[in-house]
Write a structure and sequence with these properties.
This protein has helices at residues 7-31, 38-68, 73-103, 111-138. It is mostly helical and 139 residues long.
Length: 139
């Protein structure tokens, strides 16, 4: 039988999941006009915010305890970078797949620009999550 996380951790996880949902809703409202349809906007937002959240959880629940706190800073940085690059690529692949199915191959160009923008979003969101966790731990 799987062990559940301790009650305080479950509470923080639920609160953080709700925060990620709110972030997704905010991004959907802000970026809707940049997508061909509402459905594509929702898919883009969901894939990117899911990738950002996954990277943040991986960072705080796995990488920091395993590598940062044990003094393996170079390994931590390289593993986090690899995870962020991979998750960005997956999110972009999901988005492009749906765009191609909905509109056709002409709908997707500028792969390197899209990847750079989405990876920058990854950096911002993972950094912001780290700042929030740091501030909350200080309290």
């Amino acid at each position: 039988m799987a062990r559940l996380a301790p009650q305080p951790l479950r509470g923080w996880l639920l609160a953080s999941l709700l925060l990620w949902v709110a972030i997704g809703i905010g991004w959907l409202r802000l970026t809707r006009g940049f997508h061909a349809t509402d459905q594509l906007a929702a898919i883009a937002t969901a894939s990117l915010v899911t990738a950002y959240a996954a990277a943040a959880y991986l960072n705080h629940l796995v990488l920091i305890p395993r590598y940062w706190r044990t003094g393996q800073h170079k390994r931590y940085a390289l593993t986090l970078l690899a995870a962020m690059l991979t998750l960005t690529a997956i999110a972009l692949a999901v988005l492009r797949t749906f765009y191609i199915r909905a509109i056709g191959p002409a709908a997707v160009n500028r792969l390197e620009v899209d990847f750079a923008l989405d990876f920058f979003g990854m950096l911002v969101h993972v950094s912001a999550a780290a700042l929030v966790v740091h501030v909350l731990r200080k309290r």
